[in-house]
């Protein structure tokens, strides 16, 4: 430090440092000090150091740091104003980079002219400060790391070490995330040869300050000794790295919470494209790729537009969160949409319009990826295997065979057109390309895909109504082999949305909720993929019933069309099921469906949510439920079609949405309805089935005395025999017998069920109105997520409840330990040893400032759905302890809960309770219904800080 202090006087006579380029003038901004630092960093340093009576070096260092802190703060404020005013994300990122350039230049001046000046510098006492990595591109997000290379001609000297330290310490004091390396030119060449990450960072090296000839020498040697002749290896490494990154961030570019930086279709993909192109074509600016023949002008504009938009989104994410947040989560999506300036339109919320724009940009990035890789393969700058992995193929087999059409050929074992006029000669070839690819298991050459996108103007009303074109499309849609892959290629080229304009409306459309994991178009295509797997018989273990009945379905084509169109009317003001059915009636004849097939497809679309809704939220043991559903379905063929469609629809929503529990519910509804539709009388059939179940249990309890067996069988009402399978009845019988032998009236048992994805808690206790509230509260307090509750009362006043909670652990032993903790909490609560309300309150998450999702609470009271019970359907925003709050409210209303059915669709909870009053009668009084409705709505308006939350008044509805 003393040496630096003594050097100050001689250094003050030195001249100014190089000026830093200013991106977008800030002269008109209210930051004059920032403008001066950007214009001339040396002058800012001189103001601190060159004045009479300047303080010691330590004080000067602190003063300089304070000046730079103000520079960074003003720079961020200026960049945010620029982003809001110009709506140009790239300009914002470049402004932030320019501000950082000025800060680094100031520190370099201070270090080399004031703290450690080299009075008689040797050849080794030279330094170049270089921006590398993302900073090297001249762009920074508000929370980005600052990557610096301190470049020396030879091995670092003591002087160089002092200079580097005097620059780094202030950067750390400024709370910046700095990544730095100190290397000689020889080090750079040697390490870049050995490490692709270092090679990539140096590829975008940008001179900041110091010795420019030293930097230029490094760039020259890097090009000659590292880059030359290694483009294929570099490309292969970058594409492999991309695959790993995308797999980690999410394999689909249509995930509804995308990673803007590292996800598929994000900024890193654009960066990777430019790295590869820069390496192979030896260019420094993306605009040079037009002259190089890689992009045409339209594709260059696509690249620039995508880059700007992604930077706009990323910068707003960092500004809003105050950190380097890269995942565009649901709570951020609303805020970013507002910041960018989106408004609602045509039934779509601002956030949904914003996310559609985002996904369209992600799609463009995917198109550019294919273009670059195809061009590199043509130049033999990359191995063919990389392109196959990147673009996908319909199978791993490649066959060369006669294509059966003169306009198509094979190029590098991929399907291509014979010349650029193939689509102009016959626009039907646009669809024929994909038909041949599907039929022959061929990947489509990127040149052909690119030509399809460039030929979309040929998709006219004439082509849409061409019988051959529609025949081909229906063949593609209903192919048993790879329809999902072919449809996705058609969608990515833009052809699918052009040929089916209603599909084009939902391309990249996001549904702003936690239930749907993908955009609407991606969901529809994935659903077709699931259906094709069922059709092929490859999902027998997972979907045994759907697999069994598929071969008996006579309306296969109608089923595929219905599934493809079932959500096609999303985003419209009217109910999408009704609007979608209308689209099917219009589109069916065009595609070649008969009148009957069209009617079936339209019916399936209009009712595509019915089976899932009834299975998950109705009492399947209530004859009225089955009779009502059978009246809707009307025929066994429709029942089969609706089951398969429902399975494919749920499975395609996203990972983890489908489970064995939902499968069992659907199978139960199917079998119960099948009896009615095939001519059986529900009451007679139920009586026969009850007797059959009782006989089956008698056989299982053969080791019991005959009188004990009959006494036990007499303890259960008919509903128990209908709803519970014989194996579980056997377990219940032995569970009750053991509890009674131990003199216990309160007991629990746990059992895991991997196939259904649930853990069952069996509870025995004396009946009382608040029992279910206590059980649900104990589960909530112990972290158990209830997915269903079967409630049975015995003739001697005991309750035998089966509570199904979703699994938390993959291993059974871990799951059993967790379930036993929940069961113990339930027993203690039933015995009054713990206060449930306090435990649930502790479990609740603290109230957040804002609410990401809005779900209007609704209570429907229905006396038609069940012959014996009033049905309460309660829906609203889910939260920890909601089921406990609802059951507590129902208990306080003096209602008996006969059964409860719990369904959660992302953030929306739909809980259905079959109830009676204390006299086991339905609730028919309008005034009583209004009281129930208001009490249940109050559950959603309750706030801990406001013990007397206002009631939500709504008209009574019978």
Give a written overview of the molecule.
The structure is a single chain. The protein is an alpha+beta fold and 958 residues long. It is built from 43 helices and 14 strands. The protein has a four-stranded mixed sheet. It has a four-stranded antiparallel sheet with strand order 7-8-10-9, with helices on both faces. α7 (158-173) links the parallel β2 and β3.
Salient structural properties:
magnesium; Four Helix Bundle (Hemerythrin (Met), subunit A); 43 helices; Polymerase_NTP_transf_dom; Beta Polymerase, domain 2; four-stranded antiparallel sheet; 14 strands; 958 residues; disordered N terminus; 56% helix; disordered C terminus; four-stranded mixed sheet; 5 domains; phosphoric diester hydrolase activity; alpha+beta; nucleotidyltransferase
């Amino acid at each position: 430090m003393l040496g630096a202090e003594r050097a100050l006087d001689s250094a003050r006579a030195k001249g100014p440092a190089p000026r830093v380029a200013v991106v977008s003038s800030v002269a008109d901004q209210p930051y004059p000090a920032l403008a001066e630092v950007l214009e001339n960093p040396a002058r800012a340093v001189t103001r601190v150091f060159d004045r009479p009576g300047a303080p010691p070096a330590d004080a000067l260092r602190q003063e300089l740091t304070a000046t730079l802190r103000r520079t960074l703060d003003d720079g961020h404020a200026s960049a945010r104003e620029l982003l809001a005013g110009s709506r140009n994300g790239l300009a914002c990122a470049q402004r932030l980079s320019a501000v950082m350039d000025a800060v680094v230049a100031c520190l370099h001046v201070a270090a080399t002219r004031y703290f450690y000046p080299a009075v008689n510098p040797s050849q080794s006492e030279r330094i170049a400060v270089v921006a590398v990595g993302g900073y090297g591109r001249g762009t920074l997000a508000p929370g980005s790391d600052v990557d610096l290379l301190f470049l020396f001609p030879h091995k670092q000297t003591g002087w160089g070490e002092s200079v580097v330290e005097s620059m780094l310490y202030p950067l750390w004091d400024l709370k910046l995330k700095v990544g730095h390396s100190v290397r000689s030119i020889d080090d750079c060449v040697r390490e870049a040869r050995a490490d692709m990450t270092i090679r990539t960072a140096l590829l975008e090296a940008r001179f900041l300050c110091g010795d420019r000839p030293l930097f230029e020498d490094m760039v020259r040697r890097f090009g000659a000794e590292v880059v030359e002749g290694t483009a294929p290896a570099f490309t292969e490494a970058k594409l492999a790295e991309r695959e790993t990154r995308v797999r980690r961030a999410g394999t689909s570019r249509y995930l509804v919470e995308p990673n803007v930086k590292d996800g598929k279709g994000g900024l890193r993909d654009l960066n990777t494209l430019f790295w590869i192109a820069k390496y192979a074509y030896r260019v420094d600016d993306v605009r040079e790729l037009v002259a190089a023949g890689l992009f045409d002008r339209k594709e260059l504009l696509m690249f620039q537009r995508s880059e700007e938009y992604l930077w706009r989104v990323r910068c707003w994410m960092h500004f809003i969160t105050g950190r380097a947040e890269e995942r565009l989560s649901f709570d951020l999506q609303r805020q970013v949409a507002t910041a960018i300036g989106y408004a609602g339109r045509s039934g779509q919320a601002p956030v949904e319009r914003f996310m559609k724009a985002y996904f369209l940009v992600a799609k463009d990035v995917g198109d550019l990826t294919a273009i670059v890789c195809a061009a590199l393969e043509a130049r033999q700058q990359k191995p063919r295997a990389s392109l196959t992995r990147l673009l996908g193929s319909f199978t791993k087999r490649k066959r060369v065979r006669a294509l059966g059409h003169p306009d198509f050929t094979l190029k590098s074992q991929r399907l291509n057109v014979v010349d650029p006029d193939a689509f102009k000669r016959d626009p039907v070839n646009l669809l024929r390309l994909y038909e041949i690819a599907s039929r022959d298991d061929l990947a489509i050459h990127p040149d052909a895909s690119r030509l399809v996108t460039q030929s979309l103007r040929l998709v006219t009303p004439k082509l849409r109504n061409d019988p051959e074109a529609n025949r081909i499309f229906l063949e593609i849609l209903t192919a048993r082999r790879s329809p999902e892959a072919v449809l996705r290629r058609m969608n990515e080229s833009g052809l699918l949305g052009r040929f089916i304009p209603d599909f084009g409306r939902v391309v990249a459309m996001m549904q702003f909720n936690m239930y749907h994991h993908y955009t609407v178009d991606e969901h529809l295509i994935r659903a077709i993929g699931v259906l094709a797997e069922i059709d092929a018989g490859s999902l027998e273990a997972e979907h045994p019933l759907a697999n069994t009945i598929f071969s008996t379905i006579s309306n296969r084509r109608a089923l595929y069309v219905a599934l493809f169109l079932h959500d096609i009317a999303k985003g419209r003001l009217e109910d999408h099921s009704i609007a979608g059915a209308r689209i099917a009636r219009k589109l069916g004849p065009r595609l070649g469906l008969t009148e009957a097939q069209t009617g079936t497809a339209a019916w399936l679309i209009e009712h595509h949510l019915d089976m899932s809704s009834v299975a998950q939220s109705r009492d399947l043991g209530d004859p009225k439920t089955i009779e009502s559903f059978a009246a809707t379905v009307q025929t066994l063929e429709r029942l089969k079609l609706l089951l398969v469609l429902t399975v494919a629809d749920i499975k395609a929503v996203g990972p983890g949405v489908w489970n064995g529990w939902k499968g069992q519910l659907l199978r139960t509804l199917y079998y119960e309805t099948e009896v009615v539709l095939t001519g059986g009388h529900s009451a007679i059939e139920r009586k026969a089935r009850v007797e059959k179940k009782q006989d089956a249990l008698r056989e299982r309890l053969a080791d019991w005395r005959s009188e004990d067996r009959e006494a036990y069988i007499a303890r259960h009402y008919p509903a128990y025999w209908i709803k519970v399978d014989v194996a579980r009845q056997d377990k219940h019988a032995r569970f009750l017998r053991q509890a009674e032998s131990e003199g216990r009236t309160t007991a629990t048992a746990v059992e895991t069920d991997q196939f259904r994805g649930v853990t069952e808690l069996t509870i025995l206790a004396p009946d009382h109105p608040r029992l279910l509230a206590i059980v649900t509260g104990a589960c909530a307090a112990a972290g158990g997520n209830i997915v269903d509750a079967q409630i049975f009362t015995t003739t001697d006043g005991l309750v035998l409840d089966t509570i199904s909670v979703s699994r938390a652990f993959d291993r059974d032993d871990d799951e059993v330990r967790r379930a036993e903790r929940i069961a113990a909490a339930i027993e203690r609560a039933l015995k009054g040893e713990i206060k449930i309300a306090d435990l649930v309150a502790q479990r609740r998450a603290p109230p957040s400032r804002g609410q990401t999702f809005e779900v209007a609470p609704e209570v429907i009271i229905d006396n038609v759905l069940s012959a014996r019970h009033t049905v309460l359907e309660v829906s609203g925003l889910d939260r920890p302890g909601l089921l406990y709050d609802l059951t507590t409210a129902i208990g306080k209303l003096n209602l008996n809960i006969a059964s409860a059915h719990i369904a959660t669709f992302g953030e929306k909870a739909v809980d259905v309770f079959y109830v009676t009053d204390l006299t086991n009668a339905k609730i028919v009084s309008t005034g009583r219904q209004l009281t129930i409705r208001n009490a249940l709505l109050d559950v959603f308006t309750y706030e801990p800080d406001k013990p007397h939350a206002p009631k939500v008044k709504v008209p009574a509805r019978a």
